[in-house]
Design a protein that fits this description.
There is one protein chain. About 40% of the residues lie in helices and about 15% in strands. The chain has two domains: about 240 residues, 3-Layer(aba) Sandwich (Rossmann fold), CATH 3.40.50.2000; about 180 residues, Rossmann fold. The longest helix has 17 residues. The chain has about 425 residues and is α/β, with parallel strands linked by helices. The radius of gyration is 22 Å and the shape is globular. The strands form two sheets. A seven-stranded parallel sheet has the order 3-2-1-4-5-6-7, sandwiched between helices. It has a six-stranded parallel sheet with strand order 10-9-8-11-12-13, sandwiched between helices. It starts with 7 loop residues before the first strand and ends with a helix.
Length: about 425
């Protein structure tokens, strides 16, 4: 698979990187893992893990034996002052929202802006040791894009910006004044003008960028979706022990991830309550498993709805163990309240080859799940969610639950997606 050209070097700017956990690190980690397979040596510029909500040392095992260099500077943002530990407790939702809004008020574009100067200085020292061929900056945090812009000006090499989420139009971005929004728009425009190529995870974000920044053309922005790593499922299958014990003769529906803002379990849980109220014989025949931070308010709702015998919350697990739970489930559930975010769990669910129930608005997530043969219901449609669970149960009971079609599964492999990324890199270096 090695191309016929000398090995090339890419500087990857990624504030969030393992051993930090959660879904935000997966895309970057997997690109970095597979780039050497295509004759590109990545150097990751990141920070010392400190004051983050989840830590997963096992993720770095992905890079063992691969031609990858990781350079760390001291961290930035409030987390470095909160704790000397790598991991801090996930706050209650009201507290998380308040802290997020305070951050948006005092830091532009985000509270990692303090990393910009030290990251640029460190990258320039690295470039003096051995030049890079290209810069790849992934965001959020969007401070990463400003670092990429500054380095493009100093090094005069191609800059690729990777939007995992939108910047200005991010649904949960808080603008206390018009000036705050203007400064974010101006910063984004500056980064985009410096870029050589732009990548987004979905078409909606591409449309938003093109609408706001008219100097860009359609071909300036490429869509490269989230995906799954086939190795994750091989390693999960080889883990010693077993997945969490199942209830006898019960269909298991699993959710993996955190709940925040409009991504919450309330409507799904109410749908289960309604189903058991009308069809009490199904109680004990359906179980819901949650992998990830499950807040106190979520537990209180489970108790209020009388679902203690149906719901199990395992808390945060290392990624490989989480993957094992997906594989041991009968069906998988996810929720997203907007058409701009691109949750990686959708693609990992498809990679697990399990039927998916997606609570999502009209848009690309729903289309992706429908293509995979799953169910799509609006996030707040309790009756619709209940109906989907009933249909799923009937199929399970008769052994007719279908895995996603294999061609759909294969197109979201991280190996193939990295190959597409490399083609974009190569096009920028052609004379």
């Amino acid at each position: 698979m090695t191309p016929d050209f000398p090995q090339r070097r890419v500087l990857v700017i990624a504030y969030y990187f393992p051993p930090m956990g959660l879904s935000g690190v997966q895309r970057t980690l997997k690109f970095v893992k597979y780039l050497p397979q295509y004759n590109w040596q990545p150097t990751v510029l990141t920070v010392e893990p400190r004051g983050y909500y989840a830590s997963d040392e096992s993720l770095l095992a992905d890079l063992e034996g691969r031609d990858v260099r990781i350079e760390r500077t001291s961290a930035a943002g409030p987390g470095k002052y909160i704790s000397r530990k790598a991991e801090v407790k996930f706050p209650k939702e009201w507290m998380r929202k308040m802290l997020s809004r305070i951050s948006d008020t005092f830091f532009i574009p985000d509270n990692k802006i303090g990393w910009r100067r030290k990251a640029v200085a460190h990258a320039l020292r690295l470039a003096q040791e051995k030049p890079f061929d290209l810069i790849f900056a992934t965001a959020p945090p969007f401070t990463d894009f400003l670092i990429g812009r500054d380095l493009k000006r100093e090094l005069n090499i191609p800059l690729v910006l990777d939007y995992r989420d939108p910047w200005v139009e991010y649904p949960f971005k808080f603008y206390p004044t018009p000036l705050h929004k203007y400064l974010n728009v101006r910063s984004e425009r500056s980064a985009l003008r410096a870029s050589s190529h732009v990548i987004t995870t979905n078409r909606r974000v591409k449309e938003l960028i093109l609408r706001r920044h008219r100097f860009l053309t359609y071909n300036d922005i490429e869509i490269l979706s989230q995906g799954y790593d086939p190795d994750d499922f091989v390693h999960a299958a080889a883990l010693p022990g077993t997945a969490h014990p199942r209830r006898a003769q019960a269909m298991r529906i699993t959710y993996a991830g955190v709940f925040w803002e409009d991504r919450k379990p309330d409507y799904f849980l109410r749908a289960l309550q309604d189903l058991f109220k009308d069809r009490p014989k199904l109680r004990g025949r359906i179980e819901a498993l949650f992998v990830g931070h499950f807040r106190e308010e979520n537990v209180r709702l489970v108790n209020k709805l009388g679902l203690q015998d149906t719901v199990t919350a395992l808390g945060y697990l290392p990624h490989t163990e989480c993957t094992r739970e997906l594989m041991a489930s009968d069906a998988l559930w996810m929720i997203v309240g907007d058409d701009r975010g691109s949750p990686g769990k959708v693609y990992e669910y498809i990679g697990a080859r399990k039927p998916v129930l997606a609570c999502a608005p009209e848009g690309f997530i729903g289309s992706t799940v429908e293509e995979a043969g799953g169910w799509v219901v609006r996030p707040d449609d309790v009756a619709g969610i209940r109906k989907a669970i009933e249909e799923m149960y009937v199929q399970w009971e008769h052994h007719r639950l279908q895995a996603p079609p294999e061609p759909v599964v294969q197109k979201y492999s991280r190996v193939a997606l990295t190959g597409t990324l490399v083609k974009s890199f190569e096009a920028l270096l052609e004379p």
